[in-house]
Design goal:
The structure holds two protein chains of two kinds.
Chain A lengths: L6 E12 L2 E13 L4 E5 L6 H9 L6 E6 L2 E2 L7 E4 L11 H11 L6 H14 L15 H14 L4 E5 L7 H18 L2 E6 L2 H7 L2 E5 L7 E6 L8 H4 L3 H16 L7 H20 L1
Parallel strand pairs in A: 3-8, 3-9, 6-7, 7-8
Antiparallel strand pairs in A: 1-2, 1-4, 4-5, 9-10
Chain B lengths: L2 H14 L2 H31 L1 E2 L2 E2 L3 H39 L16 H32 L1 H14 L4 H15 L9 H27 L3 H9 L4 H39 L4 H11 L4 H30 L9
Antiparallel strand pairs in B: 1-2
The chains are: A alpha/beta, B mainly alpha.
Chain lengths: 285, 329
C-alpha cells in the first residue's frame, strides 16, 4: 500500500494535561499534503495552529491519531522537518554563517568540508544575506535575522519546511520583501511548505491551499481553500485581480463571520430569521 | 593687545571648550577625589581622639609611614636573602675547588616572609581555592540546571551549607587535613591546604547557584532548535547550554571570587597560612606601637587587591558575555 501523499495527518487530536483536567486543543485533524505544495494554516489566536505545526515537527506528540511523512511515522523532531521559528532563534553567540554551519554539520549528506562551505554560502545567497555572513545576530535587523533563520532551515534540505508565523514580528515592508524571497525560493527548490500566518493577504499570495482552522478548544479544520492563481504571483498585479479578491473574501468570511462552533446551515438560517422577526416586532411596538 | 581686544578673544576661547564633556570628566574625577579627601579628613580627626591600649588609633599619616617602612623591610629582607645565597655559592665554589667530588647543597633562606611575599601567598591561596571551587561548582551547577530532579535533590544541601561561615568550617577542615595529608616530604604546607579548602567550601555556592539558574533559563526556542537539529547529549551541552549560560557563570564566578577573598583573610588568620591574614594576626599579637598602623595598611591592601580582582573578573565577564544588551558594571 503506497501513500500518494507526501505528508498525511490522520485523525490527529491533542490533549494537554492541566491542573483542571486534560485540555482538548485539537481534534479530528485530517490533512493530506502533496509534495511541493505550499500550505498556509490560518485561524484566530489560540486555535491550535502552532500545535498542529509542532505535532508535524515532532516537538509535541499527538495524543490521538498520527502523522506520516513519506511512509514513515513522525514522532520526534528532525532536520527533515526543519522549523523556522517566530523568534528566529538564532544562537546569539554565533555569526550568521556559523548558525547555518551548525545545521549543515548536523546534516552532512555526504558533503566534504569544501562542499559544506559552498552549500552554506549558497543558502545565505538564496536569502540575500551573503554580505552579513560574519555578523552576530545582535548586529543585524529583525528581518535579516529571520532570513538567516530561513537559510538555516533550508540548509538542512528538509522534506517539509515548517514556518511558525515567520514574519509576525516584522514590519509590513520587510514582510513584503521576505514573502517575495520565500516565493522565489519555493519556485526554485519546489519544497513542501507549511506556514502559519495571521495575514490573509500573505496566505492568499503565497499558498497553493489555505487550511482554515476553527476556534479552539477542540479546534479542527474548518475549510480548505484551493488557490488557483498562476505562479509567479506579483502582489501589485494581483491587487486588482478578481479571483485574488474573491479568495481573500472567502478567507475573511470564514474568519470573521463564522461563529465559535462551526454551525450548520439550518441553525444559521434560524438565527437570521429570529433577528429579522425581532426587528419587526420592536418596530410594531 | 588692548583690553577691549583681549576680552572677546578670551570669551571665544572659553566658548569653544566642550563644556558638556569637560563637565562629565570633572565630575567623574573630582567627585571621587572630594569624597576621598573628606574621608581622610574625618579619619585623621577621629584617629586623634581615640586612645587605645596600643597607642593612638592610626591616622592617614602614620599609615603612610608604615607603608614605607614595610616596603623598606621587604627590600632589606630581599637583600639579606641575596647575600645569604651569594655566601652559600661562594662556600660551595671554594669547597668544589678543593674537592671536586663534593655534592654542593643550597639551603633555603629561612627569614620571615615579608609583607609583599605574604600578599603573594594570599593571592595564590585564593586562586587555588577559587579554581577548586569553580571546578566543583560549574559541573554540579550544569547538572542542577539541566535536570529538575537533580536540582530538587541537591537544593536542600545547597541552602543548608551556603550560610555557614568559614570560621565554623575551619576546625573541621584542619582536623581532616591533619589526618589525611600525611607525607614525609609535603609539597604544600598544611596551613595552605586548610586555607584553600576553606576558601573553596565557602566560595563554591554563588557559582553553583548562578550556573544552575543560567543553565535552566535557556531560551526555550534554542532548546527546540537543538531538538530539530537532533544534537546528541554532549553536543547539546557544549554547543547550546554552555555558551548560553556563560554570562550567568561569569556572574557567579565574579561573586565567588569576591567572597573567596574575604573568606581567605579569616581562614589565614586561624590556619596560620603565611599571607595577609597571618600578617594581621601577628601584628595584633605583637602589640607594638606601630601595630595598629600596620594592620591598617594590611586592611587597605586587602581592599585594593579585592577591588583589582573584581575589576579583572568584570573585564573577563565583558569579554565572554555575548548578551550585548546587558549592562555590566
Amino acid at each position: 500500500m503506497s501513500h500518494k501523499h507526501h505528508l498525511e495527518l490522520t485523525q490527529v487530536g491533542m490533549d494537554f494535561p492541566t491542573a483542571k483536567g486534560p485540555f482538548n486543543a485539537l481534534q479530528n485533524v485530517n490533512l493530506r499534503i502533496n509534495k511541493g505544495e505550499f500550505i498556509s494554516l490560518i485561524g484566530h489566536s489560540g486555535c491550535g495552529k502552532s500545535t498542529v505545526l509542532n505535532i508535524v515537527a515532532g516537538l509535541y506528540q499527538a495524543t490521538k491519531g498520527g502523522v506520516i511523512l513519506d511512509n514513515q511515522e513522525v514522532n520526534e523532531p528532525g532536520p527533515e522537518r526543519a522549523v523556522v521559528f517566530q523568534n528566529h532563534s538564532l544562537l546569539p553567540w554565533l555569526s550568521a554563517y556559523k548558525n547555518v554551519e551548525l545545521a549543515v554539520k548536523q546534516t552532512p549528506n555526504g558533503r566534504s568540508k569544501k562542499e559544506m562551505k559552498e552549500w552554506i554560502e549558497h543558502n545565505l545567497e538564496l536569502v540575500h544575506m551573503s554580505h552579513a555572513a560574519d555578523k552576530l545576530p545582535a548586529e543585524i535587523s529583525g528581518g535579516m535575522k529571520q532570513r538567516v533563520g530561513i537559510a538555516r532551515a533550508l540548509a538542512m534540505e528538509p522534506k517539509v519546511l515548517l514556518m511558525d508565523e515567520p514574519f509576525g514580528a516584522l514590519d509590513a515592508l520587510t514582510r513584503a520583501h521576505l514573502q517575495d524571497s520565500v516565493m522565489e525560493i519555493h519556485a526554485q527548490l519546489g519544497n513542501t511548505v507549511i506556514m502559519i500566518t495571521h495575514d490573509v493577504d500573505e496566505a492568499v499570495l503565497l499558498s497553493d491551499r489555505i487550511v482554515m482552522m476553527t476556534n479552539g478548544p477542540a479546534a479542527t479544520i474548518g475549510e480548505i481553500l484551493s488557490i488557483e492563481l498562476d505562479r509567479p504571483r506579483n502582489r501589485i498585479e494581483l491587487a486588482d485581480n478578481q479571483e485574488y479578491n474573491h479568495y481573500r473574501h472567502e478567507v475573511l468570511k470564514f474568519l470573521y463571520e463564522k461563529q465559535r462552533k462551526v454551525e450548520s446551515v439550518g441553525e444559521h438560517r434560524k438565527k437570521q430569521s429570529k433577528r429579522k422577526s425581532g426587528a419587526t416586532q420592536s418596530n410594531v411596538a | 593687545m588692548s583690553k577691549q581686544q583681549a576680552v572677546p578673544i578670551i570669551f571665544n576661547q572659553v566658548r569653544q571648550i566642550n563644556w558638556p564633556t569637560l563637565n562629565q570628566f570633572l565630575t567623574a574625577t573630582a567627585l571621587p577625589i572630594v569624597g576621598i579627601v573628606i574621608f581622610l579628613g574625618l579619619w585623621s580627626l577621629m584617629a586623634k581622639n581615640i586612645d587605645t591600649s596600643l597607642g593612638k588609633f592610626p591616622g592617614p599619616a602614620s599609615v603612610w609611614q608604615q607603608t614605607i617602612v614595610l616596603v623598606d623591610e621587604h627590600n632589606a629582607q630581599m637583600d639579606k636573602a641575596d647575600k645569604f645565597y651569594e655566601r652559600q655559592e661562594q662556600r660551595n665554589a671554594a669547597r668544589l675547588a678543593k674537592d671536586p667530588s663534593y655534592a654542593s647543597k643550597i639551603r633555603d633562606f629561612t627569614g620571615a616572609p615579608t609583607f609583599f611575599e605574604q600578599i603573594w601567598t594570599s593571592l595564590y591561596t585564593v586562586m587555588v581555592g577559587f579554581i577548586v571551587a569553580s571546578l566543583l561548582a560549574i559541573p554540579i551547577g550544569i547538572l542542577c540546571g539541566l535536570s529538575k530532579n537533580a536540582y530538587t535533590a541537591i537544593n536542600p544541601l545547597i541552602q543548608l551549607f551556603k550560610p555557614v561561615s568559614p570560621l565554623a568550617w575551619l576546625p573541621l577542615v584542619t582536623m581532616v587535613v591533619s589526618a589525611v595529608y600525611v607525607s614525609s616530604d609535603p609539597m604544600f604546607s598544611k596551613s595552605f591546604i586548610t586555607s584553600a579548602v576553606t576558601v573553596a567550601l565557602c566560595c563554591l555556592w554563588p557559582t553553583l547557584i548562578n550556573t544552575a539558574v543560567g543553565v535552566s533559563s535557556i531560551d526555550k526556542d534554542l532548546i527546540n532548535v537543538s531538538k530539530v537539529l537532533r544534537l546528541n547529549g554532549l553536543s547539546h551541552v557544549t554547543k547550546i547550554v554552555l555558551p548560553s549560560s556563560v554570562p550567568a557563570i561569569f556572574t557567579g564566578l565574579r561573586l565567588s571570587l569576591g567572597i573567596g577573598w574575604m573568606v581567605l583573610i579569616a581562614a589565614e588568620m586561624l590556619a596560620q597560612n603565611p599571607g595577609l591574614g597571618k600578617f594581621v594576626w601577628d601584628e595584633f599579637q605583637n602589640g607594638s606601637s606601630e601595630s595598629l598602623a600596620r594592620i591598617m595598611v594590611a586592611v587597605l591592601t586587602i581592599g585594593v587587591i579585592g577591588f583589582a580582582l573584581d575589576r579583572i573578573m568584570l573585564a573577563l565577564q565583558r569579554t565572554f558575555s555575548w548578551d550585548k544588551s546587558a549592562v555590566l558594571r
